[in-house]
Amino acid sequence: MPMSANVNLMIKAARAAGRSLQKDFREVENLQVSMKGAGDFVSKADISAEEIIREELTEARPTYGWVGEESAAVDGTDPTRRWIVDPLDGTTNYLHGLPHWAVSIALEHKGEVVAGVVYDPSKDEMFFAEKGQGAWMNESRLRVSGRSRLIESIFATGLPFGGRADLPETLQDLARILPTCAGVRRWGAAALDLAYVAAGRYDGFWERSLQPWDMAAGLVIVREAGGLVEPLQVGGDILEDGEVICSNEPIFDKFSKIIRG
Q1: Region 187-216 average pLDDT
Q2: Rounded to whole angstroms, how far apart are CA atoms 185 and 207?
Q3: Is 127 within 8 Å of 117 (Cβ atoms)?
Q4: Cβ distance 17 to 70 under 8 Å?
Q5: What are the backbone dihedrals phi and psi of residue 18, each rounded to the nearest 5 degrees, phi first?
Q6: N or C: which end of the chain has fewer CB within 10 A?
């Protein structure tokens, strides 16, 4: 599975950040007695992981632009390329000691995400893809599931929290999809949800109110695994709108019709 120098660089940066986060993750349970203390600790771990990624990437590619969750965007001297980085997707899981979170790194070229890495340190699963080169998890080639019946399919989504405005829409989605399928999962890390669609663990995924760094890497991984990926609103823009729907090809039309209402 020959990958470009950029993908190898992204994998190296993701592993370095993952080691730092995993080390700090072992301390999280000790801090849960104080929500403020635990929250502050996780914030520091998050920022530290982003600094590790930024140092690795900018040292090797100093002309590329940068968009990260924890720092200000930077325009590179090469206006055609930029990194899109989430050092810790699944922060709430991390804060609660739940081992389901990931490092997400994407490379955008001329407005298109052309490479992505999603690394789950807790399970040592490295999902990665490059346009035209297929999608992989560690040494294994990824393919989306082959299921063609909704009633046998499992889907993933996010559930709004803290009074978010998209709660009514999501409840309507669930009311339509749940009677037709084998279940819906909410694991709290969109980057891993997308990676799991690519791996055939989920048959489809949809979500609203996401940030570009939540899903940029996962989008190319799903596409390279043979999945269909579209904006939730027909004619929209996934990264700008923060909404996405994806699945394998056999069920996409039925699935998207139900979610889109």
Answers
A1: 97
A2: 12
A3: yes
A4: no
A5: -60, -40
A6: C
Domains of the chain as residue ranges with CATH: 5-141 (3.30.540.10), 150-260 (3.40.190.80)
* Nearest Cα residue to 244 out of 207, 213, 189, 212: 207
Q: Which residue in 245, 78, 65, 85 sits closest to 155, CA to CA?
A: 245
Residues contacting 226, CB < 8 A, separation 6+: 143, 144, 248, 249
CB-based contact 85:69 (threshold 8 Å): yes
In angstroms, what CA-CA distances link 42 with 91, 108, 118, 129, 138? Answer: 8, 28, 19, 28, 27
52 Cβ neighbours under 8 A, 6+ residues apart: 13, 16, 17, 20, 87
Per-residue pLDDT tens for 102-149? 999 999 999 999 999 999 999 999 999 999 999 999 999 999 999 999
- Full-model pTM: 0.95
> Distance between CA atoms of 102 and 199, rounded to whole angstroms?
15
Distance CA 51, CA 29 (A): 24
